[in-house]
Amino acid sequence: MQANTVSTPIQPAGKVLQLSLWSVQTLMFAAFILFGFQKLFMPAEALAAMWQTQWPAEYPTLLRLTGLIDVAGGIGILLPALTRIQPRLTVLAALGCTILQICAIIFHAMRGEFAALPLNFILLPLVAFILWGRGKRAPVAPR
Fold first, then answer.
1. Residues 43, 44, 45, 51: is their CA dihedral positive or negative?
2. Within a domain: residue 72?
3. What CA dihedral angle connects 140, 13, 29 and 95, to 10 degrees?
4. What is d(CA 66, CA 59) in angstroms, rounded to the nearest whole number?
5. Is residue 60 assigned to a domain?
6. How many domains does the chain have?
7. Residue 61, Cβ neighbours under 10 Å: how many?
8. Nearest CA to 133 among 93, 105, 103, 100?
9. pLDDT tens per residue, range 34-92
10. C-alpha torsion sign, points 113, 124, 48, 68
11. Domain coverage including residue 64
């Protein structure tokens, strides 16, 4: 006796989903590159004043490290998929950016820096959308 299993093939991603993913990827590329360059090249004291928080001046090594992570994440979210060279790296970059946002939310909440949280709560679903979209629903085929 054989069990009948019904498998439904995954439908190819529609144009709206593809356009949404490329748009969000481009936006996240620009945002993470901008944030990363700020963290890497602006003085920590200037960032502390601009962001109205003391953590950049208190933890300059963490500031520069998160700057590097932001730049790597921004590049990884767009370029591998765009060039179709190792596009799975886009999924890994989106996973890394998702984890980064969760860590940033915990860090700022523990320090009582609730004014910083809205940005993280905006970025989190956007990078999670890329993670889901490029990981499951609309992966980019390699060359």
1. positive
2. yes
3. -70
4. 11
5. yes
6. 1
7. 8
8. 93
9. 999 999 999 999 999 999 999 999 999 999 999 999 999 999 999 999 999 999 999 99
10. positive
11. 15-137
- What's the start-to-end Cα distance of the chain, in Å? 43
CA distance 33 to 46: 18
Task: Match 């523990």 to its residue by tokens.
Answer: 110
This prediction's pTM = 0.90
Which pair of tokens denotes residue 26? 């481009």
pLDDT at residue 117 in the model: 96
Tokens representing residue 95 in the block: 């996973």
What sign results for the dihedral spanned by CA atoms 98, 24, 68, 41?
negative
Residue 3 lies in a domain: no
What band does 1 get if pLDDT is binned at 50, 70 and 90?
low
4 falls within a domain:
no
Which 3-state string (H, E, C) describes the chain? Answer: CCCCCCCCCCCCCCHHHHHHHHHHHHHHHHHHHHHHHHHHHCCHHHHHHHHCCCHHHHCHHHHHHHHHHHHHHHHHHHHHHHHCCCCHHHHHHHHHHHHHHHHHHHHHHHCCCHHHHHHHHHHHHHHHHHHHHHHHHCCCCCC
- Distance CA(109)–CA(90), nearest Å, equals 28
